[in-house]
Amino acid sequence: MSSEDKQIEELLLKYRVSGPPMGLKGRVLSSGQRVTLRWKIVGWAAAAAVLLVSIGLHWATVRMERQMGGMLEPGQIWSAEAEELAQMMDAEGAGRRYLALRLAVGYGAAQPETFSLKSNLHTGEI
Amino acid sequence: MSNDRRITKEWAEKLYDRYGERLYRQALMILWDCGLAEDAMHQVFVKLLNQRCGADEVASWEGYLTRAVRNECYRVLRRRKRLPAQPSSEGQILEAADAMGGDKQERQKLERALGQLGPEQREVIQLKVYEGMTFRQVAEAIGISVNTAASRYRYAIDRLRSCLLINRQGNRDEF
Prior knowledge:
The structure holds 2 protein chains of 2 kinds.
Chain A: H1 3-14, E1 15-17, H2 24-29, H3 37-69, H4 74-77, H5 80-88, H6 93-110
Chain B: H1 9-31, H2 34-50, H3 61-82, E1 94-96, H4 104-115, H5 119-130, H6 135-142, H7 146-171
Helix pairs in contact in B: 1-2, 1-3, 1-5, 2-3, 4-7, 5-7, 6-7
């Protein structure tokens, strides 16, 4: 061992790792889980993140619903031909909604600039 | 000592009184963070109190608890790798070994240098230097070969020397 190594060992021996804090014995021997301040902060941060994501998703859903709510002007696409087609298919609420959606998609693709998002497809009212 | 195949609180208290301080220092040396070391100690004793085994069933409580604390510390370190880095307890880890108090700057410098080591190297330093174990005893205590224990110690001392030399050259003072 070199003299420098000896010096390092001597330096190490001048100090030592701190002992346990006073209250540790009581905490260690008490039953149940101890929640440290750090884990409390992590817990609250996680809860806040979940809350923010929930609010964001709710906001996005409401926004989308509003857009969907006025998807199509009923008279704009529901022509006599469409009504005839619906009757031919014996389509009730769901069938009519599907047909309206297909017409809306076709209408939007044909006239993307003028396509208005104003309709209430999910209520079944056409 | 109790034979009801369950560790009593009184027995755990005796174990804490006898080995608690040493175990805490061991945990702190591995984890290098006071809060994490306290958590590790707590976990070990909670597990001990919930364990279905009699006090007579363990041949060496010191060895058993040393292993338990060590395992818990490395479990914490593995878990910590997956979490964002937490602030360490630098400045509160080392204390003067005698009543003279030591030099604050020197202590901080040593603490920084020790903080640069890996947990395995610090663990070997703790056992070899502070607990006065031989390499064979260190190897047995932590379940590694004597050569590995010696090389970890060699690496730790070399690393400390280079850290402290850099500090010495940078600060133009002697250690």
